[in-house]
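ingest -> fold -> write
write: protein_1
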Amino acid sequence: MLRTAQFKKGYIQVYTGNGKGKTTAALGLALRAAGYGFRTYIAQFLKGQPYGEIEAVKRLGGLIVIEQFGRKGFIHVTENPDEEDIARAHRALDRSLEVMLSGKFQIIILDEINVALYFGLLSEKEVLDFLAKKPEDVELVLTGRYAPSSILRRADLVTEMKEKKHYYQKGIRARKGIEK
């Protein structure tokens, strides 16, 4: 398999916590990398609705590719996850592994995978097995609240977004171009 990697060593990063900005930070990393010609693949595990970043990356000539695996609406899990959501999460993980091992992308972002773990759509073992297959020269980013301690221990870098104040508490809904 011919790899076009430019990293000598890729690391595992986790962006977690209850504050705003986890996906935004991952997208910022992808944008920065695109400036140097690196290719990034983003699997959005729980998102299926339109977001501004999907339209924006179409203008970058394939340097950033986003695939959504979630339903059109938000997932709401109280006790037992729906079989469709479990199947979608497994498709996302399988596709991400295929892409990661293809040698075509230097950065892989698993957006909201920590929430997929929290909701029981994937097991920690499945994700840890995925991490064990990471090629040495691929950078891997996992986003989402509720990152389990097993993932935090495996990561090389962990950033926790902490909410101090948020206008959602005043009833402000997600705004086009800012939160979606």
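write: protein_2
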Amino acid sequence: MSFKDHLQKSKKQVDQYIQNYLCDLESTLTRPGLKDLYNSFSYSLAAGGNRIRPILSLLTAETLGVPPEKVLPLGAAVELIHTYSLIHDDLPCMDDDDLRRGKPANHKVFGEAMAVLAGDALNTEAFFLLTKNYSSQPELALDLISGLALAAGAQGMVGGQAADVIFKERDVDSAEIEFLHMYKTGALFRVSILGAARICNANAYELKCLSDYARAFGLIFQIADDIADGNKKLEPSFVKAVGLEKAKETCNALLQQAHQALESFGDRSLGLKNMIDYFAGPRSPAREGLNVS
């Protein structure tokens, strides 16, 4: 099976899990207002995307020799957080985008108030999803909830979004760009990988290796996108901060670090290796103009 086929198989597995989750919710949200809320957040949750974050969880389980079904709830929870962030990002007070993944943004269909509430609902449902599926292991559940809260909040994604708002108003250096990428985007990649590793009972050394990989993946994901855009981006980018050639050198160095971090896992880590190659290579999704949000 080619890696792209493997990705599609994993995506279908994630999509089916999310669809089942939506079906369960739909049966409980039937009253006026609740039905409208369901329509709003299900619109965005089912609107496409490559499910990169939950797929990283599945590939981590594969690397550790654990059935992927064990980490699906975590992967779905992270996807709920990611989707809520996109709904809020598109609002007029943020990036003011009319389209998301080629379709009208949530607030253009359901109105700004319902879009805000849809994001709020997905945010909180993510944590309910974790408690529902991992409550039989209280220590693990607490660890996953804490990890996702840190990754999604002021010390992670939301903190990165706040920095992005400020950075748009001035020039930034490479250290600030790295900080931005590690918080705004990298935090959810990290929890997708390390949360899955904890579910799979990874030891301290395995967690350290996967943490190194997760850091490299988060940076490569954004730097490759910046390279694809060159100097066309209006917002801060790694290319603007250090130049195109330095950005390429950094991307290649990070790729080597990621592969080295996975060496001890042997062939079981081929999926994670292929995943980072897929985004860093000369025909990465970013450079082919594909949607990777």
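write: annotation protein_2
The radius of gyration is 19 Å.
Residues 283-293 have pLDDT under 50 and may be disordered.
pipeline exit 0
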